[in-house]
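[Primary structure, fold]
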Amino acid sequence: MSATPSIAGGSCLLSSGSTGLFASMVRQSAKRTGMPIVLSIEQIAALLGILKESTRTMVFLAVFKGLRVGELLGLKWKDIDFQKISPKSLLAAPK
């Protein structure tokens, strides 16, 4: 029997330093190479002032609620709590 299990055509190398059975198969996120550019309040206000609607709302949510592009694009009308004017998914406790 081999010490390297085979999963769906791929293989997983086991080593004493691995943190789990499939540690070598997990893709690591990219590391930041520089500091992110952060806009000032005045720059954000100027940006929101020149954007047309729908884009302005998306930028507003990204800036003030911390939504990422994928989260913005995934929003549905049912995700919005119109009583609190806030995305419901941001207020929910983590599962």
Remarks:
- Residues 62 and 71 are 9 Å apart (CA to CA).
- The mean pLDDT is 73.
